[in-house]
Write a structure and sequence with these properties.
The protein is about 60% helix and about 0% strand. It is mainly α.
Amino acid sequence: DQAHHITERFLNKWLKTLEEPSASITTFFLVPHNGPLLKTIESRAITMKVIEGPASLSKDTGLTYSSFSQFLENSLEFKQLHAALTPFIKAPQQAHLAIEGLKNKPELQLSFFRAFQEFWTCCEADTRQLQRALDEIQWFKKSQAFHNLASERLYGLLSCLQGLV
């Protein structure tokens, strides 16, 4: 991390490792900008541009949304998801119908999770709502890692949206 602070002398010494890498070693040089390290290092490297966090609609358009359904309606990327969540959008107490529509479709679950995250970056919410959304995002990831039931993960996200559909 912060490879732009590594001295030229150290980078030159690291060249040997880069030229004859061991099968079990991978080196990552992380820099917070696109600036070069050393030409000799870059000639032996694969450069990847990593963007922090999901790209949100608010960053692209400057729009803010008061409801999740409004957010989905204005997004071309989430049209199929909008159709799957229609029972929940029309009647939030029908969350179980939306869960059934998403439960066996991993690609739609991923789309829902992305939409959920993006919505909170461009919605009109107070800090209490944002903290609850963050907690649900963290739980979703943890639950996914432990292979908990999809319906349990989805219910947490949907319940967080209940006042905002």
